[in-house]
Amino acid sequence: MLLLRAVLLFLILPSHAENIPTEDPGVPILLPKGTCAGWMAGIPGHPGHNGTPGRDGRDGSPGEKGEKGDAGLVGPKGETGETGVTGAEGPRGFPGIPGRKGEPGEGAYVYRSAFSVGLENRVTVPNVPIRFTKIFYNQQNHYDGTTGKFHCNIPGLYYFSYHITVYMKDVKVSLFKNDKAMLFTYDQYQDKNVDQASGSVLLHLEVGDQVWLQVYGDGDHNGLYADNVNDSTFTGFLLYYDTN
Ligand SMILES: *[C@@H]1O[C@H](CO)[C@@H](O)[C@H](O)[C@H]1NC(C)=O
Ligand SMILES: [Ca+2]
């Protein structure tokens, strides 16, 4: 094998003869063409220099799939999604603790107005308010015993009533509101009897309105009577006050 390589090298040499270094002039390396006669084998030359690096080879076949890499960084927060459907109503909760007691309200006195009075003096003059001077109740002093008139201090609905003992004469009385007779009551007296006359009414009053009883007609119909055991009374009170 080594011999074959030497022969091949020898056969190639003529075309590169000028490039072959001839360090040893005594060695007959160059041989003219066609000079086979007297041919003798020379000593094999030195190995040539390394050639220039060849081109890059082809890409290798893909390697095996690598192991799974580490998890990536957390991305930015996404946008808020749409509102979901309202859920079903939950079960009813337990009763709460009772709250604190409330503050006292406005003075209840403001909304109180009531009086109840009786007749003491049989002398009743027609065309003027009858003066009831026997006071059963007049806490707020909205009834004036000196004039016989009730003065409205709280606007609202009022109830008035009167129960009159009739003796010796007929009785014609009217309940007045601001100089206007609102209610009429008539009782005819029968000899040697004690009669009663009564009436009641609901009236809406404004502050400043006045209400009283008064004999109407001629002065003869003033048989209102009272003694220690027979009363004639006049009563009134606020039923509902106006809230607005
Ligand atoms: C008042 O009532 C009493 C009964 O309680 C009666 O005896 C008396 O006669 C009455 N007064 C008048 C004036 O009738
Ligand atoms: Ca009668």
UniProtKB/TrEMBL annotation:
Highest rank taxon of the organism: Eukaryota
Protein name in the entry: Adiponectin
Bias-annotated ranges (Basic and acidic residues): 55-70
Cross-referenced PANTHER family: ADIPONECTIN (PTHR15427:SF20), EMILIN ELASTIN MICROFIBRIL INTERFACE-LOCATED PROTEIN ELASTIN MICROFIBRIL INTERFACER (PTHR15427)
Cross-referenced PROSITE patterns: C1Q (PS50871)
GO cellular component: collagen trimer; extracellular region
Keywords for the protein's UniProt record, in alphabetical order: Collagen, Secreted, Signal
